[in-house]
Fold this sequence. Notes:
Number of helices: 6
CATH class of the domain at 12-100 and 162-222: Alpha Beta
CATH architecture of the domain at 12-100 and 162-222: 3-Layer(aba) Sandwich
Distance between the termini: 28 Å
Structural class: alpha/beta
Order of helices and strands: EEEHEEHEHHHEHEE
Strand order of the largest sheet: 6-7-8-3-9
Mean pLDDT: 95
Radius of gyration: 17 Å
Low-confidence stretches: none
Shape: globular
CATH superfamily of the domain at 12-100 and 162-222: P-loop containing nucleotide triphosphate hydrolases
CATH topology of the domain at 12-100 and 162-222: Rossmann fold
Strand content: 15-25%
Number of strands: 9
Amino acid sequence: MTSVIINSHIGSITLEAMLPVVFSAEPPAESGVWLCKVCFERGRFYRIEAASGAGKSSLCSYIYGTRTDYSGRLLIGDTDAAVIKPEQWQQLRRMHLAYVPQELGLFGSLTAFENIELKNRLTGYAERRQIEHWLERLGIADRADWPADRLSVGQRQRVALIRALCQPFDFLLLDEPVSHLDSVNNRLAAEMIATEARRQGAAIISTSVGNPLVLEDAKILRL
């Protein structure tokens, strides 16, 4: 199998008959993802619709390389994810795979800006004025100096989205990223994310159980 190419773009992520181990005894009767062959292509937008408990967070974790409890195959480019070494996964996450998990993973004692800057210091990707523009765009510039644990869930989601944009990426994974945003902030977040993804020629894979990120031209798959 071809070695994963760290310094070039990852053009596709392919699922081949994948299924979470927990579903092995009772596979889903109808799914457009599990036990199917699905190819996510760089430059395209995807929305994964699912009921709660259908495995959407598991799917994101598999692609991000933090879980391996599945059957079938996952290909990152042409490389089977099973042979990718830990240090290669670290580089993939730094240069090619951005992720906003459902739990968000913010540090409660750090301010909104400090949470974003912590990521940006690792990548050196975004200028301060760009981060400030994103904060203003999403209506939380006045909360930049607030500790994350004082923010509402919707405000924390917006901080996590900005943090995810502070790196180069070929694929942006978003697990229920706007579940606590109203329609106006959903639209603003979607426009901002789509603009950055298009600028990088990247794909977006976003999951939803009912309040989806409103992306134009997104291909919809049912989990």
